[in-house]
Amino acid sequence: MWLLPFLLALCICTPGWADSLEAPVPWLGRKIRGLREEMRKFDDYLVIAMDCLGGEDGICQFHCVSGATPQRRFGFRQPPANGCGSPAFGLHLDVRIPAMTRCCNHHDACYDSCGVNKAQCDAEFLQCLNHICSDIRQAIGLTSSLSACESGVQLVRQAVLRLGCKPYLDSQRAACSCPGEEKDEL
User: Fold this and answer.
1) The total number of structural domains that make up the chain
2) For residue 135, which phi and psi values (nearest 5 degrees)?
3) Do residues 19 and 29 make contact, with C-beta atoms less than 8 angstroms apart?
4) Which one from 51, 108, 112, 122 is the annotated catalytic residue?
5) Apex CA 107: angle with CA 106 and CA 111, to 5°?
6) Largest Cα span, the chain
7) What are the start-end ranges of the H helices in 54-146?
8) Which of 167, 177, 171 is nearest to 72 (CA)?
9) Is 131 labeled as catalytic in the residue annotation?
10) Together in a domain, 89 and 130
11) Of 21, 34, 36, 129, which has the most beta carbons under 10 Å away?
């Protein structure tokens, strides 16, 4: 019973196999090509889901499929600063706090630097945000914590930790190239 699905999968994965069926059984060839295309789409969705969850191993790291060290992509230019938010999720937050926007822009630039570690970018981002709270506290003369500011920092931190893998990987794919690999293979 397990042999039939195995043979079908083998045939679907063999390039040109469905084309050879076109003459004797046209509808079967079309169905198999359609199934193969749907499986490719499903695989693309799984890759996106894995990116959102932290990559294949649960740790969000960019690496070349071949194991080679990623190299800065020839001709790559960092995209213009876009403030806080994530184009990957269609989210843009106009926080109207210049210091926070600077932190977000620096964080984006960090993600766009080929070979940089996501955890390092995120740690620098959190430190930048924490400095904002500290500066506000000093400016208004408080000695105690500024809980609203610190709660906001923690909220942003959690969003970056939970949802930042896909934007990081997308940025690394754009900024890096891998020897012997095409951009869409990464």
Assistant:
1) 2
2) -65, -40
3) yes
4) 122
5) 115
6) 84
7) 98-111, 118-139
8) 177
9) no
10) yes
11) 129
Q: Do residues 43 and 54 lie in contact, with contact meaning Cβ atoms separated by under 8 Å?
A: no
Phi-psi region of 139 (alpha: psi -120 to 50; beta: other; left: phi over 0): alpha
For this structure, is 107 an active site residue?
yes
- Contacts of residue 3, defined as CB under 8 A and 6 or more positions apart, other chains included, come to none
Assess if residue 60 is contained within a domain: no
Whether 117 maps to a domain, the answer reads: yes
The model's pLDDT over 57-87, given as tens digits with 9 standing for 90+, comes to 467 989 898 889 999 999 999 998 888 877 6
d(CA 186, CA 166): 13
State the Cα–Cα distance between residues 114 and 70, nearest whole angstrom: 7
Q: What is the pLDDT of residues 31-52, one digit of tens each?
A: 667 656 766 665 555 555 555 5
Which of 131, 141, 145, 137 is CA-nearest to residue 100?
131
Please identify which of the residues 51, 107, 108, 112 carries the catalytic annotation: 107
Q: What is the pTM of this model?
A: 0.64
Domain of 48 in residue numbering reads as: 3-53
Q: Exposure of 107 by Cβ count < 10 A (0-12 exposed, 13-18 middle, 19+ buried)?
A: buried
